[in-house]
């Protein structure tokens, strides 16, 4: 089996596929690695058991394109490694990959594209660890990938734009939606109109969802926040209350919803763990979802030979992901002399304009689902913050007042971020908490440093690795490189 | 037990998975966490610190909450594993 490629792409979502397609068409040897069993990332998920004919018409143009690419590329020379996780990236272009049979191999390349995507963010509440409480993404994935409803009568809450999409999808699939409890107020959402007439399709889409829910008599409540999830061993009931304009819970407005399934989400964060391990510089912006990989106008990171594309460079949805995949591929083709400068310039120019628009839209979305700093004050001390290690908010508050005002400091003082998920779930929460309590600037709060293996791996898999790179380079990129001032070159 | 499988979606081939020694029907193409949910298993593991029950949370392999033992190998993410005929699962419910 070949171990050397012209380009290795990590992530087979829209960004990765867009790049793979273009690179392959110019006869470059491409490898795409994805830890999912399927190709297409989070957006392009279909139930393989249903057969192609059933898939039906997909109204979302980008999803359609993604589905088509995922299917078409499998018949092209591009090699796909699914169910495989990249454990680390090393100098001299070596990647350590564990495949689905738990064998670790080294791959070599001169060019890597990191299209590592995104994950959901949460605002914790008492009882959020109970079985029955799941993320809005998890609810969608159950339906899309396995054709199974998340529950009989699902309650949906949070501030994520996905909430309404999820509700509509549950209804389409014959399930019931108890209610949609939106933490933010309608007025915040109407601000999108400031972006001008180009957002009209998206506004109409939102209105369409609301009409759909109204027709199905699904209550949609604005300015309502989840206070607690209750149940002995599994979820039985949810308490929610009204919030004021700063997100504070208004006492006395609590209501109980009897349900065994609650889907929550509060926006998205870029997956920067592998880029960090590889030494790529990151920057912080709330309107990009938090810490993101810093790139120049050709999607190149601070490490020569490594590009980053899609949600990893800032949360903005599928449109931006597709464009950035293309842009990185174009730059690689130009650098390798496969396309001439005038062609490169012309095609890039066409993409840049659309890119600007997608980034603006992303900014709006990220700010619309943002939780205010004040909102953390309402969460009781006994609430779990680090799900993996079961560290409570009280523990963290205590250590922040003891002077541990960085993610690294809190990690040392409490173990937050030392569990299996390595801070992917609690990291964004802790960042906001420290920010609200201590007021440190982002670079002082920092992000969790990331070392190989970037994903959990069994000891047995490590036996007998033949990798000069991995055994030669220990502690590469020990401390995260955080940029204080980062101006995105394209906006 | 009410069925969570979406009626309008045709299923592929039926497979049998064995959960805590009991045979359970699933369908080709389903992910293990979904099949377990449809079979009524919502608590999948117990948190080592408090013994509290945990189940599906992020559904995409990030949170490591949905850990079950698959064919003798512990701590496998059910949400990242497609079902296979004859798979033996231990759930710490």
Give the helix proportion of chain A (percent range): 25-40%
Largest interchain contact: A-B, 51 and 46 residues
Proportion of β residues of chain A? 15-25%
Percentage of residues assigned to helices of chain B: under 10%
Kindly report the oligomeric state of this protein.
Answer: heterodimer
Would you kindly provide a written description of the structure presented here, covering whatever features stand out?
The complex is a heterodimer of chains A (491) and B (93). In chain A, helix 1 (14-25) packs across helix 2 (61-73), helix 8 (318-335) packs antiparallel against helix 9 and helix 10 (393-401) crosses helix 12 (426-438). By secondary structure, chain A is an alpha/beta fold. In chain A, the strands form six sheets. In chain A, strands 1, 2, 3, 4, 5, 6 and 19 form a seven-stranded mixed β-sheet that branches. Chain A has a five-stranded parallel β-sheet with strand order 8-15-9-10-11. Chain A has a three-stranded antiparallel β-sheet with strand order 12-13-14, with no helix packed on it. The mean pLDDT of chain A is 92. Chain A is globular. In chain A, 33% of the residues lie in helices and 20% in strands. Chain B is mainly beta. Chain B contains one helix and seven strands; from the N terminus they run ββαβββββ. Chain B has one helix spanning 32-38, and strands spanning 14-19, 22-27, 45-46, 53-54, 67-70, 73-77, 88-90. The longest helix of chain B has 7 residues, at 32-38. Chains A and B meet through strand 8 and helix 3 of A and helix 1 and strand 4 of B.
